[in-house]
Design goal:
Helix 6 links the parallel strand 7 and strand 8. The chain is built from 9 helices and 8 strands. Helix content is 46%, strand content 15%. The strands form 2 sheets. It has a 6-stranded parallel β-sheet, with helices on both faces. A two-stranded parallel sheet has the order 1-2.
């Protein structure tokens, strides 16, 4: 009776491409648990800049662009570390290139969950995902909710969440990625403000409680 879409953008695409009735498609965005999140007071924003990649290690996630950006950051002597969490078809080749570029600046954690995942989120400042296509990644919501500033491409439903310059950054090139990272490294006060905006926005709009309430209402109405 009802088809679920992650955003208004996806709803429009479904209606137009599959000749569906507009009323048959309901927008229901992903949600996350907000019961055990890192708090702002627990994070240090004066420590070495920590950039996080969290998710499937796949070429379509923008791995080529990430490596190109890392090359520039190292060449410009930025003091940072790059933390990679996850696995996928390009894991080995990606890590080989990361180690070549970064040396001991690379921290590979594997698949993270529980206390280890919470510690990674606590230590991270920026979340990098220059993906070629996406829906609405749980990793985006989780990182933002834990005061990690997203640097992502304007694909899928990510622009519905990330308001560039306010609670994160939308980027279209390697140069964009590098410029944002340098800016956030130099201006830690702005980094804190955007991180706070990111966390408050996701906690208020993408909680699992709200998700459950909306899907229950959908079932009851049908």
């Amino acid at each position: 009776n009802s088809i679920l879409a992650l955003s208004n953008k996806e709803k429009t695409a479904l209606v137009e491409n599959y000749n569906l009735c507009n009323n048959s498609v309901t927008v229901l965005s992903n949600g996350i648990s907000i019961s055990s999140l890192v708090e702002l007071s627990e994070k240090s924003f004066v420590s070495k800049l920590s950039i996080l990649y969290l998710g499937r290690i796949d070429a379509n996630k923008g791995l080529k662009e990430i490596l190109a950006a890392l090359e520039i950051l190292v060449a410009e002597n930025l003091d940072f570390e790059f933390c990679v969490c996850g696995t996928g078809p390009q894991k080995d080749s990606f890590l080989v290139e990361c180690r070549r570029i970064l040396g001991d600046k690379l921290k590979y954690k594997g698949i993270v969950f529980g206390n280890l995942k919470q510690q990674v989120l606590k230590d991270s400042h920026l979340f990098l995902l220059p993906s070629y296509f996406e829906g609405l990644p749980i990793s985006l919501l989780e990182t933002m909710a834990n005061y990690v500033v997203p640097i992502v491409t304007p694909v899928g439903s990510m622009p519905d969440v990330v308001k560039s310059g306010k609670n994160g950054f939308l980027v279209n090139s390697v140069d964009d990625i590098v410029n944002v990272i340098f800016e956030m490294s130099k201006n830690r006060d702005r980094l804190v403000q955007i991180a706070d905006n990111a966390a408050q926005y996701v906690r208020e709009n993408y909680s699992m409680d709200e998700y459950v309430n909306r899907i229950n209402k959908l079932y009851y109405e049908n």
